[in-house]
Write a structure and sequence with these properties.
It contains 15 helices and 23 strands. With 508 residues, it is an alpha/beta fold.
Length: 508
Amino acid sequence: MTKQQIRILSRKSDLAQIQAQLVGLEINKKFPDIKIIYLTKTTEGDIDKSSPLSEMKTTGVFTDDLRQSLIKNKCDIIVHSWKDLPIDIEPSTTIAGSIRRADERDILLVNKKNLKKIETSKKIKILSSSPRRIYNLKDFIQNFFPYNCNEIVFNNVRGNIPTRLKKLLNGDNDALIVAKAAIDRLLKNPFKEFQELSKEIKSYIDQCLWMIVPLSINPSAPGQGALAIEIKSNDKITEAIVKNISDPLSIICVKKEREVLKKYGGGCHQKIGVSLFPTLFGLVKSEKGESEQGKKFYDWSILESKKNENLIVKENEIFPETISNYKFFKRNLIKDSIHKINSLNNYCIWISRKSALPKESSLSSSNIIWASGLKTWKALSIRGIWVNGCSDSMGEDFNPNISSLCQLPWIKLTHSKSVESIIKNVIHTYELEEEENLPNFANKKYFYWMSSSAFKLAIIKDPKVLEAFHACGPGNTFKEMKKMIKDPAKLSVHLSYDHWRRKLINVR
């Protein structure tokens, strides 16, 4: 049994209507005979456009008015931005599902015409009224911005995305930070009635430089990027339809995020970010913030189902004991790579490590710069290079997800013996030369590798190394090591050397 029609309610903003239609589109893919009727309603949060959300007295300012329409049977489904929902909702309704989640990250947009002013004044004014973003962005700007900003000022902003972009471009503020999912949906929506809006948004973004803030240091608001599909609790027919279009992993991640927020009290006034996202090696969690009692917390980890609590590891059994012990190669510049890099225009350039970009090279501003991880990003920013984002040391399998912002071809800067990977177009910028005195692996049982090149060299020098337990970060290193280590129990993935070391030494 199914329905002949479904009434979908959303807020009146363009973004909310696009989100509702995205859900309707998924329903019609599975149930083409169902007629979709779209309804809109103004909420309390839409009427009060001046108060910062964190200072409004009630929760659910964007959702409660819609819920009353559902309870009164004036609609069958409400489509919410899941991050807007209060932690607890009344039992007469339920969140029946969610389509696949969009990008969880925030995007920082900086007005191009203000760049010189920022550089000379060493001050930046950012539009944001989110306590979470303000808390996280101060450190981010100071560590990963190519200008030394000694003063970071945040000013309140409300309104829809076009309104916020106009305030940025026409006012005296320098930057705006918003949910990237909102920008993506406005730019990439397939609906005819919103194509002019997409062009308008694109014209605004073209006047800005953008940075996508990594989840490892700026976890999102719980549920950011996900759509919550709310129905009446007793509507089993609609529930079955919604479950048919839902993405289970998205729902699992959001529910876990909201559990963390609930632990700290909930609400958009909190300086709390929590993001979970699926990878090829499990769910990754980023949790960062400050409780109302002033307690700071941070966790960047892989959620694992089991731990060996009885494992006892001695410090002298691990390699490397410190990063300073990890020396396998000298890196020698390939000089003709400099001309190749300087000739690049209109590319997305993946920089595998800080030494992969020769100091003598000069990057065209027409290129998008993507770092492999935060260490590379920070090193590039010190050199005055604008970095658009990074893959959080997840490797090339971690989709940059920037197709809404640019459609440029990718090219990678790396060493001459790098393995073939997703990015086929490569400039070899340095060669690896084996160090004369390699580390001693005697009595080592647990190894962490930063590259498959070092792993392969170690095995050549001491084949017994292969019998030990090994770990590495995600990406190409893991793929190459997996080919050589036949016992999956002897190879594990960790987010960093420090993460691996802490877990191994402090396992009990």
